[in-house]
Each structure stands twice: as structure tokens, then as C-alpha cells.
Design a protein that fits this description.
34% of the residues lie in helices and 23% in strands. The chain is α+β, with helices and mostly antiparallel strands. It has four domains: 99 residues, no CATH class; 71 residues, no CATH class; 42 residues, no CATH class; 71 residues, Ubiquitin-activating enzyme E1, FCCH domain (Elongation Factor Tu (Ef-tu), domain 3). The chain has an eight-stranded antiparallel β-sheet with strand order 7-14-10-11-12-9-8-13, with no helix packed on it. Strands 1-6-3 form a three-stranded antiparallel β-sheet, with no helix packed on it.
């Protein structure tokens, strides 16, 4: 079909684009899967539709404090900031300077200019940045860890939350998580056995329990415990857990064209081993020409990607 919603449908689409079944596409199924993986990886790394900006919430545990870093799920590929641990962003009380400014100097927008108020608030934010600063961090996507360069004995305590500004990839496939789950009807807590929820899931992801019930994650309490939105309607023990993907990714225009070009390059590379051999009927295999055409298509798409679709340059990739 022209609008693939699964990996298999994308493979079929790419082969038809190359001429199948009118022309035999001399590429092994494993080679096709490898090229699809390459296309998807490139799409997630560089295309703006391959990622989404999120604020990842992580509850600090005693284990986090002892090792001085927090887990970051595989889906997270960029980390752009960590929210301050002080009270500068918390709700203010009547003794706060910002409260007094609004009470005495900005109680009515129609009679008082807001210019001086805005300048004062910018000055306060500058002072907070100067004296409190923002938490320094180190991140590499291959480690799945965010190292926070803070005073772990003073700045955070078990039960506190860390808010990480980051980008996650949109995985189109449905994956089976590590371990099994047990849950009871009427509650909203799912208990895992041998699970690593904090490494494989993010809040607001959708999971399917026992292949039947689909729920949205409200909170990840620990590697073996999550809370879902709404009470569970069934009970089960030691069942499989799957995480639903974003199937619309398979139908992305760039991904379809790029995957087709990669498969074409593999096809030409396979045929190039038999270059010059004449087939029955006088047909001569020309794998080198197919490779040249495919490489030119790939180079053009990658150039267009970097010129038009790449994420902002200030984002640092771990």
C-alpha cells in the first residue's frame, strides 16, 4: 500500500518503488532489514519529525545519590538542560519580592506601566542565574546516563524530582519490555519482576499488558513499579509488557525515499559482483550504474536534510 503503517508494509513499498514484481530485486531479506534500520536511525538523528521535545521527570532514590547519576531511557538522544533545584520556580508567598511587586506596583495594568515591572523581573532572573545558576550535567546517549555535577548530599534528597529537558526519538515499532508484570483490578499500580521501567519507558508512554489492555503511564515510581492513568479493570500475574510505537513514522515521505535509495544501493552492490556477465537473451547486468544512481540520490537527500530539516545547531548530541 502507498501509506505503510508497519515495517513489512514499508519494505513492500520500497521494493515496488524499485520495480518489483516486474523486476527481480536481488537483495536478501536480512539486507533489506539492515537498510531499513539504517534509514530509521538517520531519520531519528537528523529529521525534525523524528524526535520530540519532552521534560523527563525522574524521582531521586538513595541509589541515585550513592552513584551520583540518573538513568536516561534509550529513546532520549539529546539533553539540553536540567531545571534548577532551588525555589526560584516554585509557588511564591506573600513575603516574596515578586509577590510584593505585583501587589503594590502592578495591581492594575490599566493604570501602571508594566515596563518597569518587566525590567525588574529580568534583573531578578539575572540574579538567580548569577548566584544560583543552573545544574551542570554531562550526557552521552551510548551510556544512558545523566551525570549531575551537584552536591548530592545537600542539593537533592530521596523523593525529590529532577526535571530534564531533552529530546526523544519516535520509535514506530512496538517493542516487548524486559521482565513481566503483575497487577490487580481497581488499582493503578503495575508491579514488575525483572523489569527496568526507568530505562525503557517515559511518562505518558502507552503500554499494553498481556496483549489486551492498553494504558498510559502516569508515573514511573521505580525500575519495578509504574502508575497508570485510571484504575486497572482486570487482574493478571507475570504477563508480558509491550510499548506501542508511533506507526505514522513508517509513512514519512523522507523515510520512504531514503530507505528505497539505501535498498537500491544494496541491490547495485550485489549485482556489481557480476558486472559484465551476459544473461540469456543478451541482457548484461549493470550493478555499477544502479550503485551510482542510488548514491547520487542518497547524497542529494542528505544534503537537503542538513540544509532544511536539521535540528537547531545549539542542540548538542550526546
Amino acid at each position: 500500500m502507498a501509506n505503510p503503517t508497519t515495517r513489512a508494509e514499508l519494505v513492500t513499498y520500497c521494493k515496488r518503488k524499485l520495480g518489483f514484481p516486474v523486476i527481480e530485486i536481488n537483495v536478501d531479506d536480512d539486507q533489506v532489514d539492515d537498510r531499513i534500520d539504517e534509514a530509521l536511525s538517520f531519520y531519528q538523528d537528523y529529521h525534525f519529525d523524528g524526535t520530540e521535545k519532552i521534560y523527563m521527570k525522574h524521582m531521586i532514590t538513595a541509589e541515585d545519590i550513592n552513584r551520583r547519576w540518573i538513568y536516561c531511557p534509550d529513546a532520549v538522544i539529546f539533553v539540553t538542560g536540567v531545571m534548577p533545584f532551588d525555589q526560584s520556580n516554585a509557588s511564591i508567598n506573600m513575603f516574596d519580592l515578586r509577590y510584593q511587586l505585583r501587589l503594590h506596583d502592578l495591581y492594575d495594568f490599566t493604570s501602571v506601566s508594566y515596563v518597569s515591572y518587566e525590567i525588574t523581573m529580568q534583573h531578578i532572573r539575572t540574579l538567580n542565574l548569577l548566584f544560583s545558576g543552573t545544574p551542570q550535567f554531562r550526557f552521552n546517549r551510548k551510556q544512558n546516563k545523566v551525570f549531575l555535577d551537584i552536591d548530592w548530599a545537600r542539593d537533592v534528597y530521596p523523593g525529590d524530582y529532577v526535571i530534564v529537558e531533552c529530546y526523544r526519538t519516535l520509535n514506530p515499532a512496538t517493542i516487548t519490555l524486559t521482565g513481566t508484570a503483575t497487577y490487580t483490578s481497581g488499582v493503578n499500580t503495575v508491579t514488575g519482576y525483572g523489569t527496568t521501567f526507568d530505562q525503557q519507558l517515559l511518562e505518558n508512554d502507552f503500554i499494553t499488558l498481556n496483549g489486551v489492555d492498553t494504558w498510559q503511564i502516569a508515573r514511573i515510581s521505580s525500575p519495578t513499579s509504574i502508575e497508570v492513568r485510571g484504575p486497572l479493570t482486570t487482574s493478571a500475574a507475570n504477563v508480558a509488557i509491550t510499548s506501542s510505537g508511533y506507526s505514522d513514522v513508517w509513512n514519512d515521505r523522507f523515510l520512504k525515499k531514503y530507505a528505497t535509495a539505501l535498498i537500491k544501493l544494496q541491490w547495485g552492490n550485489n549485482l556489481s559482483k557480476f558486472s559484465g556477465i551476459q544473461m540469456p537473451g543478451g541482457v548484461t547486468l549493470d550493478g555499477v550504474r544502479i550503485m551510482t544512481e542510488a548514491q547520487a540520490e542518497i547524497d542529494k537527500m542528505e544534503e537537503d536534510m542538513f540544509n532544511m530539516n536539521v535540528l537547531p545547531s545549539e542542540i548538542m548530541m550526546g
